[in-house]
Amino acid sequence: MSTSEAEVTVADAPQAHRFEARIEGELVGFASYVRDDERVTYQHTVVGPAYEGLGIGGLLARTAVEDGLRRGIEVEVTCPFIKAWLTRHPEYQDRLSGTPGA
């Protein structure tokens, strides 16, 4: 299966403290966080083994980082996957310390 065969949706699930990726309603990955009014820390990203290599982790990373930036809060990344993703997307790096978007 490729992501072109089925649509991946990513949504914030604040009650679970994570962004969830789903295909046809099935949970296929998530990026967990701790968030308050001033800061968000992205801690861990998981994609199910059957869905690795389909770009789902990158979609989770982009959605999570952009959400923190849109909120105008400090964004901290401790998740190794999102850190690696950021090295391939330098357009976000200078916006992740202090108060992004200010």
TrEMBL record:
Keywords: Transferase. GO terms for molecular function: acyltransferase activity, transferring groups other than amino-acyl groups. Gene3D superfamilies: 3.40.630.30. Residues 1-102, 11-97 form the N-acetyltransferase domain. Pfam families: Acetyltransf_CG. The keyword Manganese does not apply. InterPro entries: Acyl_CoA_acyltransferase, Gcn5-rel_NAT, GNAT_dom, GNAT_YJDJ. It comes from the Bacteria. The keyword DNA damage does not apply. PANTHER family: BSR4717 PROTEIN, PROTEIN NATD1. This is GNAT family N-acetyltransferase. It comes from Streptacidiphilus pinicola.
